[in-house]
Amino acid sequence: MSNGRYAMTIVSRIIRRLPPDASCHQFCVAATKAIRDVYTPSWYHFPLLSRRGQGWSDPPLLHLATHPEERLCASAVIYSIRRREIWLVGDCQCLVGGELCENPKPYEQRLAEMRAVRVKELLATGKTPDEILADDQARAAIIPEMLREMQQQNKSYAVIDGFPIPETRVPVITLDFRPWEIVLASDGYPFLCPTLAESEARLDEQRRNDPLNIGEFKATKGFTPGFNSFDDRSYIRFSV
Predict the structure, then answer these.
(1) Residue 29 — very low, low, confident or very high, per pLDDT cuts 50/70/90?
(2) 144 three-class SS
(3) What is the pLDDT of residues 163-181, one digit of tens each?
(4) Residues with Cβ < 8 Å from 180, sequence gap 6 or more?
């Protein structure tokens, strides 16, 4: 199981166990603690660096503090029925009455632009899109910068990874008591639409017309050959 999927299962359990009137703050604290509890000395195997039981000085946490790429990590977009609030914890998106709300990583678009430039250079040398997708050297070129930017994880942007979430980086959308149609989704949909069918159709159109993701929509990776998406995706639509 990947780190992301494992983190998702933990966060899912926390959501199911939250009291109905839980706040966004309570969710952030509970989700952080649940993942932090996984970071035990038996999970990583390296020499004891300091006394255990001293909060963030536990050896795994010392290691993970400087290696965010190794943390369990997930995002969540949540609707609280009791509070009539939408919480965007991490890079997720939603439609509220047809209006798009996003919470992307701050460095994502810049790195996507860098990759697009490199892909175009590779195309100019005669490489085919299929060859680039099979061995995405353009993505490999931005990985070092991506790892540097990840040092800002839960500093300049929020994720659920077992470290304290900066709640000022978590948008909270409060709804009034008018009827609303809401769509909650992961960032795997480059064009979020009012229905799942439309969103899937736009995704398929992107795959057919620009599998490298270097045109109107740019991403830090393309469509892996044989896959119908470039990223994981979740979608739910409901009315309140």
Answers:
(1) very high
(2) helix
(3) 999 999 999 999 999 999 9
(4) 96, 97, 239, 240
